[in-house]
Amino acid sequence: MYVGCVGNNVHNITLAALNAFRCAAGLAASEGGDPLEIEGENQTVFRLLRGEIPSPNETTRELVGQCLGEFSHLRMVWFRCVEPHANVAANRLARIAMHTEQTWFFVDNLPAQIAEFLNVDVNGHYVP
């Protein structure tokens, strides 16, 4: 599990999502997680990454470029749009990342708060 700081210049969920996708793609490439499916509710992010809309500013343009650079190391990346209620855990992790200056990697022993909402997310959506 990876929870990374997204930097002081990230003040919205679109930039937080782009940064998370960049890190996820890098981790997937290094750990053999290929192909990679990215789930999210933010259609704007998916449209930016597919080149369907222009980046609104330099920060977004840089993050899109970094994402595409990481994606190029994978055989396949696809996006799946989900409803907001199905993306609660990812949104909570994004908010944590937006308000931290640290990058955390957890292999075991997740903090209880993070483990609890991930457990609810996975068992509530993927385990019958």
UniProtKB/TrEMBL annotation:
Any one GO molecular-function label of the UniProt entry: RNA-DNA hybrid ribonuclease activity
InterPro entries registered for this protein in UniProt: RNaseH_domain, RNaseH_sf
Domain of life, source organism: Eukaryota
Membrane-crossing residue ranges in chain numbering: none
Residues covered by the RNase H type-1 domain: 8-95
Protein name per UniProt: RNase H type-1 domain-containing protein
Pfam families on file: RVT_3 (PF13456)
